[in-house]
Amino acid sequence: MASLARHLFGAAVVTGAGGTGIGAAVAKALARSGCTKIAITDINLNTLAQTKEAILSINSSAHVLHRPGDISDEHFVDSFHHEAFNTFSRLDYAVNCAGVLGDKTIKAVDMSMDSFDRLNNINYRGSWLSCRAQLRNMLRQDPLPEHPKQRGSIVNIASQLGIVGRPGAAAYCASKAAIINMTRSNAIDYSDDGIRVNCVCPGVIETPMTTSSPEMAEALKPAINIAPMKRMGTPDEVADAVLFLCSSQASFIQGHALVVDGGYTIN
């Protein structure tokens, strides 16, 4: 873990934290960096419990609140964040990782409304609901003594495909572009309140979503080969970028979309 992000204090929330993807990597990185109060959520209770155990193996004294739920459900999102805030008395860092890639690459004319709605309900609606709940709670608290100008920091996970297009991914690209501009708008609205809002735009990262099938692996090959580094990234590499944006070393960074893609978007 990079030394620049080792000193994070206070309480954190991570969505999409189950499994072995970006959310789980972020939750564990937060624990390594000093957060002892971490609330995590995911749709899958079993994988969420595994992340909780991983956090406790890093720091046995950590207080981990884990609640399974649907991030596109307004009632669940609000109640989860309300419980986290009331349990920890603060919410200093929030990282919104919940998202789906879609079943396969598909052109717009062939996409069903059910698939479109699922993508947008989880990727954009879920991130929007989470940000709203996080902002509401952060506005209730004073800044931490060690970060006197910061009341809270939110990091959304978007995608390189929120910046550039890719064949057969119109709905996915749009959902991630929405997260980027939502991030920018919230950054403008809440700067005076001491809340920083940024996002990370990963490239192709080695997670269960990108290695779920031979078809998906084949579909992602062009994106991997276009990038100068010509490899998948790791969840830990994304987590390092997230922790930087959460940390005081990013105290003058606001509304930024940090691309972590092996150089894909410079082509």
UniProtKB/TrEMBL annotation:
InterPro entries registered for this protein in UniProt: NAD(P)-bd_dom_sf (IPR036291), SDR_fam (IPR002347)
GO molecular function ontology, one term from the record: oxidoreductase activity, acting on the CH-OH group of donors, NAD or NADP as acceptor
Keyword set includes Transit peptide: no
Domain of life: Eukaryota
PANTHER family for the chain: SHORT-CHAIN DEHYDROGENASES/REDUCTASES FAMILY MEMBER
The name this protein goes by in its record: Short-chain dehydrogenase/reductase-like protein SDR
SUPFAM superfamilies: NAD(P)-binding Rossmann-fold domains
Keywords tagged on the record: NADP
Keyword NADP listed: yes
Pfam family, one: adh_short_C2
Family per record: Belongs to the short-chain dehydrogenases/reductases (SDR) family.
CDD domains, A to Z: SDR_c (cd05233)
Signal peptide start and end residues: none
